[in-house]
């Protein structure tokens, strides 16, 4: 068993190498045991969905076999985006759920995102599952479960979202790029049929080989098609999704990218109109303009660690109405259930745009201009990376305010810099923002020198 697949937020590895049938069966058996123990129940219903990867059907069969032999009833909802698995658990009052997905990784990867009750499994819970699999301590149940199919989840979801948002009178033209990911089974119907927009589709046919571009909207290269299509068709905006439909990328009417933290400014203003004083969460990689704008509009801005599982836990802790990440995970706890859902975020964004005569650029025109680096990634061994942010904090703390919530974020007064260890690979993540390109580059130089010194 490759223990490296048991990660901070999920289980993920190369399907044919790391996720053979024996391990996946063991995971199903262990999950049934774990969920019953955590919920204090002798019977268990588990919603299971999957993305369109080549390995997903095989993995589903092995996982379902383990769950059933562990005494769980498996609710098979077929190939759906990850948020629809969460939706099905809530709407059907099921005990737990698992989505089989490699998220935005290349086609040879696959994995599992898991919830027990309202809690997303992460950190110690995932390691506890690993221990149960390794020890073979989960016995088969005396009374096995069964597999039942629910083929109505997509239509139920679309009906729910249609009744949740109130579209205005302004017609919208929207480019939708699903990147051949699983969002293609629902996003086109949502945008065109439910929300009534004119849609220009790109790569909406699910294909686990991702033949057109990688389904990761945080990478500028992957947004070139949607950017070009917006300009060509003079669309109001473009939407791109990651491989499993829980992250969103947005392009404005000029074909320019609206990154996750800037999108959050627009969404947070809308949420605060109907929820004055609400708590809204951004993570440590987000622009300072987001936190400042939330406060300016009467909200309570909270900074969180990076990671969808950790943010969901923070939402539960604080009662936040909205949360978001640079990566495009958007969590609505206003009129919705508090989990990350790129399709629902699409609906709320189109709701805003259809009810105003302003375009995206005008709506965000008063946000102070800043100059930020993209997310910079520096290779760093796993046994070294977690020590680096602390050493960097020591170097800067004598002169500047440092925040060590997740790595180190240094406030330079007229800008900030971040160094944190990735939880998903042997990498350090850096980001810098300042009021001018020259100051940004200067701060980045300071940060790079500090990191080199810390690694040496």
UniProtKB/TrEMBL annotation:
One of its GO terms (molecular function) is metal ion binding. InterPro entries: A-D-PHexomutase_a/b/a-I, A-D-PHexomutase_a/b/a-I/II/III, A-D-PHexomutase_a/b/a-II, A-D-PHexomutase_a/b/a-III, A-D-PHexomutase_C, A-D-PHexomutase_C_sf, Alpha-D-phosphohexomutase_SF. One of its GO terms (biological process) is carbohydrate metabolic process. Its cofactor is Mg(2+). Residues 391-439 form the Alpha-D-phosphohexomutase C-terminal domain. Pfam families: PGM_PMM_I, PGM_PMM_II, PGM_PMM_III, PGM_PMM_IV. Keywords: Isomerase, Magnesium, Metal-binding, Phosphoprotein. It comes from the Bacteria. Residues 4-134, 156-255, 259-370 form the Alpha-D-phosphohexomutase alpha/beta/alpha domain. Belongs to the phosphohexose mutase family. PANTHER family: PHOSPHOMANNOMUTASE, PHOSPHOMANNOMUTASE_PHOSPHOGLUCOMUTASE. This is Phosphomannomutase/phosphoglucomutase. It comes from Microvenator marinus.
